[in-house]
Amino acid sequence: MTSVVTGDAGFARPWRLSRRAARTLKGVTGIVLMLVAWQVSVPIIGMSSYFYPAPLDVWAAFVDLVRKGVLPIYIADSLGRYGAGVGIGAALGIVFGIAIGLSRRTSLAFSPLFKFLFALVEVAWIPIFVVWFGYGVKTIVLALIYVVFFPVMYNTLLSVRTAPAVLVNAVRSLGGGRIAVMRYVILPSALPGMITGLRLAAGFAFRGLVFGEFIAAKTGVGYLIFEGAQSQQTSRSIVGMIIMGLMWLAIDQFYLRPFERATVQRWGLIVDAADRR
């Protein structure tokens, strides 16, 4: 049963939104105001729809792409490439990061090389991959694996190297072997670094996906952006940009954040800034 709290004057206190609902409402309000300003600015600027399409033009292009079945296929292709690249790159990065991090000599020997390769963005490799493997899914997935591997591997390596020596010695003094040290000390200590590397890599990979589809694909949301500009259908390009942004928000909200809450936040190692407010 819901009770109503009244003040001295007998009036009910105004109903208050929850924090999450309030943040959502503020975000929606900002988007609506931006769309209104955009639509109003179109006749003021007076440029053609090729140079400056109105929101209604973009909406018409979105409806046309959905009606023809193009947009669902492009989204599915992009998500498939992204998932394959991130999954394989993250798995390899974790395995190599742990293996190299357990050896001080190996980590010192390879750290300069890893830093050098990490500095080479995937855009520089895509033309080379096209020469080696041709246009298509293989080139894009390899570029994503490359861009995901190094952030995950490097953060995992550093986390393994900085595992508390006191805890390692404590487990060994209690009779624990390498497996026990790995299970109870190394992996829990390295997990925050793994998650940090994964979140960084996921963002890098999303940008890499767009660049890869610009160059080496004939489908996908990135290709939609490029193809719209090439065919002078700017509204289609803007549809692709909006879909790309929404895809990233969905991945971050429904995959990365729940994964982080189920691991490092659950164990009290990291507190989300949004949860402090």
**Unreliable spans:** 1-13, 270-277
CATH superfamily of the domain at 81-214 and 241-276: MetI-like
Topology-level CATH name of the domain at 81-214 and 241-276: MetI-like fold
Largest sheet: none
Q: Supply the helix-strand structural class.
A: mainly alpha
Give the second-level CATH assignment, the architecture of the domain at 81-214 and 241-276. Orthogonal Bundle
Helix content range of the residues, please?
over 70%
General form: elongated
Give the C-alpha Rg: 25 Å
> Beta-strand level of the residues, as a percent range?
under 5%
Determine and state the CATH class of the domain at 81-214 and 241-276. Mainly Alpha
Q: Termini separation (Å)?
A: 29 Å
Mean pLDDT: 78
Report the total helices: 11
DSSP E strands, number: 0
Give a description of the structure:
The chain has 277 residues and is mainly α. Helices cover 79% and strands 0% of the residues. It has a domain at 81-214 and 241-276: MetI-like fold (Orthogonal Bundle), CATH 1.10.3720.10. The chain has helices at residues 19-45, 55-67, 70-101, 104-119, 122-133, 137-161, 165-173, 178-216, 221-230, 234-265, 273-276. It is elongated and about 75 Å long.
